[in-house]
Design goal:
The complex is a heterodimer of chains A (125) and B (110). Chain A is 0% helix and 54% strand. Chain A is mainly β and 125 residues long. The chains are: A mainly beta (125), B mainly beta (110). Chains A and B meet through strand 5, strand 9 and strand 10 of A and strand 5, strand 9 and strand 10 of B.
């Protein structure tokens, strides 16, 4: 079955860059019909979409984070990654990677149907 | 588009029916409205996409409804079970940002 697994440092110092990787198994990232998303959840708060990348490297980022976000994809390793620069305490959150499925012909959206378990990132000196 | 959900918290008994509401600040395409369930310490789980289509493995106790002409969409959970205790989020795809979530409804099964 399809599984996603986040990895990366659990502690990042203020002003530094947060780097996370999502390893995908059970499906090839190179397959069409998917967008690969990053979503975060601050302690006790709701869900915030960060952005997505597809297998070609096409990205779309949330306007509120666009100036600090970079996503990349490594099809050979079947992974995609997130970099968030100039972090502050406000970036402390659980970070999830998630697959978004859509129909390549109709663009019909099938939802964020597979999620990683999430990884906690704390920004602190 | 800003999504609002009501009520903020819902407390019901096993066997009852829960009705959760999601409202958009402007017109929402029913094609792009989804619902998720999140239990403590877990990732969200897709329940409903396209307003009313159940995701794989989701029991028919969960149903979604709504229309583009209304701004309101509804998740109904019938025959509540203790395991249904969770926070439920609606989500819209489209606009800027591309994906937005509602603030969630906490469902407690007492």
């Amino acid at each position: 079955q399809v599984q996603l697994q986040e990895s990366g440092p659990g502690l990042v110092k203020p002003s530094q860059t947060l780097s996370l990787t999502c390893s995908v198994s059970g499906v090839s990232i190179s397959s069409g019909g998917f967008f690969w998303n990053w979503i975060r959840q601050s302690p006790g708060k709701g869900l915030e979409w960060i952005g997505y990348i597809d297998h070609r490297g096409t990205t779309d980022y949330s306007p509120s984070l666009r100036s600090r976000v970079t996503m990349s994809v490594d099809t050979a390793k079947n992974q995609f990654s997130l970099k968030l620069s100039s972090v502050t305490a406000a970036d402390t959150a659980v970070y999830f990677c998630a697959r978004e499925s859509y129909d390549t012909l109709t663009a019909y959206f099938y939802g964020l149907d597979v999620w990683g378990q999430g990884t906690t990132v704390t920004v602190s000196s | 588009i800003v999504l609002t959900q009501s009520p903020g918290t819902l407390s019901l008994s096993p066997g009852e029916r829960a009705t959760l509401s999601c409202r958009g600040s402007q017109s929402i395409s029913s094609t792009y409205l989804a619902w998720y369930q999140q239990k403590p310490g877990q990732a969200p789980r897709l329940l409903i996409y396209g307003t009313s289509s159940r995701a794989t493995g989701i029991p028919d106790r969960f149903s979604g409804s709504g229309s583009e002409t209304d701004l309101d969409f509804t998740l109904t959970i019938s025959r509540l079970e203790p395991g249904d205790s969770a926070v439920y989020y609606c989500q819209h795809y489209g606009g800027s940002p591309l994906i937005t979530f509602g603030p969630g409804t906490r469902l407690e099964i007492k």
